[in-house]
Write a structure and sequence with these properties.
280 residues, alpha/beta, TIM Barrel, 9 helices, 16% strand, binds fe (iii) ion, binds zinc ion
Length: 280
């Protein structure tokens, strides 16, 4: 089985997200650690965090997948942007320790003209400054669509970052189905081949979470526009094969599809039905 849930707003706090996801029928979720446009975070209320931790264990949730800010770019050509990114990463990871055992996913970054090699080195350097051997969080690099100067559009680039990270046991990858497809990996016609390639280059044991999105564009478009399950170029049959793929079982699957609450509830139930039917 997999864990299924969607991206939620943290506006009403941590426990509220857990309760919302239970109402939606899911057993994992994601949230932005701060306003997606960057900026400040609200102070954490200890009782709220304790409330969520109790809820997660009572309801049998899988690992959660927090999402770093889109404005965090650890490999920008601008030094100020890189410094800001390092601050955000430091604060986000400190906060994640209040929720031990979960995942913190972020977009590796865009090298903005500095070149791939410099970008990869700067991302790894930032991680090495903040990650600690005794941390309770696993940091996930998200697979990207390879838009513009984005790093992470190929499995090889992610592998190169991982190779430079010192706290090797706390680093992994979040596999975004829309991004991988847009990046040129044909998970519709050859899911086994793509996952085999991932295993060869990075190792499937590092694939810790999935962003479960259909795509508005064709394979290799490098666009990154998410679509509702079954309404894009991946299509419902391919999405189902991915959710039930033996190599991906046990992972949290996060919907980042363009939906309102009702849409998310429907997609979560679709995935739950696939799993029930699969178990016979
Ligand atoms: Fe993302
Ligand atoms: Fe994603
Ligand atoms: Zn995306």
């Amino acid at each position: 089985m997999i864990y299924i849930g969607c991206h939620l707003s943290i506006t009403d706090g941590y426990l509220a997200m857990g309760k919302t996801m239970s109402r939606f029928g899911g057993n994992t979720f994601a949230w932005f650690t701060r306003n997606p446009r960057g900026g400040r975070t609200k102070p954490v209320i200890p009782e709220d965090v304790a409330g969520l931790l109790g809820h997660l264990s009572k309801e049998g949730f899988g690992p959660l997948v927090a999402h770093g800010s889109y404005t965090m770019n650890l490999c920008s050509a601008k030094e100020e942007t890189r410094a800001n990114g390092l601050d955000m990463l430091t604060q986000d990871l400190a906060r994640m320790e209040l929720l031990p055992g979960n995942f913190y996913n972020f977009h590796p970054g865009a090298h903005t003209g500095q070149g791939e090699e410099t970008g990869i080195r700067q991302i790894a350097d930032a991680l090495n400054r903040v990650m600690r051997p005794d941390m309770k969080t696993t940091v996930l690099l998200e697979t990207m669509a390879g838009k513009g100067s984005e790093i992470g559009g190929t499995f090889e680039q992610l592998r190169e970052i991982i190779d430079r990270v010192e706290c090797r046991e706390h680093i992994g990858v979040c596999f975004d189905t829309c991004h991988v497809w847009d990046g040129g990996y044909d998970i519709v016609h050859d899911p086994d081949g793509v996952l085999q390639h991932f295993d060869d280059v990075i190792g499937l044991e590092r694939l810790k979470a999935v962003h479960f999105n259909d795509s508005k564009n064709v394979c290799g478009s490098h666009k990154d526009r998410h679509e509702k399950l079954g309404q894009g170029f991946l299509g419902m049959e391919a999405m189902k094969r991915i959710a039930l793929h033996p190599a991906l079982q046990g992972r949290p699957f996060i919907l980042e599809t363009p939906n309102d609450d009702e849409g998310y509830i429907a997609e979560i139930h679709t995935v739950l039905e696939w799993m029930e039917a699969d178990q016979g």
